[in-house]
Known about the structure:
The chain is of the alpha/beta class and 223 residues long.
Amino acid sequence: MKKKIIVVAAHPDDEVLGCGGTIVKHVAQGDIVHSVFMSDGVSSRLDSSKVKLNRRLKASKSVQSLLGISSTHYLNLPDNSMDSVPLLEIVQKLEPIINKIKPSVIYTHCYGDLNIDHQLTHAAVMTACRPVPDSTVREIYGFEVISSTEWTAPQKSSFAPTLFVNITRFLTTKTRALKLYKEEMRSSPHSRSLKHVKVLAEHRGHTIGVNMAEAFEVYRIIS
């Protein structure tokens, strides 16, 4: 049976960094994947401009096509300032999309993350996906985003994955997608480099005895 899946990411590029290989794997298996972006990832920067914002949006649309995403939703919340919006308002923007699509699986940011937008995206998903009667959401997983998740303060909950997805066949497509987000990538030895993406995939893969993997925290499984 085909699964309906929503990937809820704070910014365009988080979806690829966090679970790009897993998305492509789901699509290859016949599942239907949708994406939601809370903010644009650009407008908070000192050098932000309409041109750069349009480039990020154009890259995002190209990436969604490459990954095989069925529909994409942009909520246009304030970039890197989601904490200026009450959580209730964030949830009220997200909840109708979840209610319309009726996914069984949600992928989103992990709980322990440095970026405030990532933190609030996680909180909004968990709130919008409360396990009330008749909810279609049966599984919720949290992904890591390099140059954010691993930079959080040690006093916070560190990323502790218990689900690993073999993406050995799909890392090439993930890399192609990140190249479309080239303005967001950095040169090695920066954490957000293509080299580190591969190294992390190898590390997560070797942890479970495969070549490449993506790792997730498990927040809910209802069987």
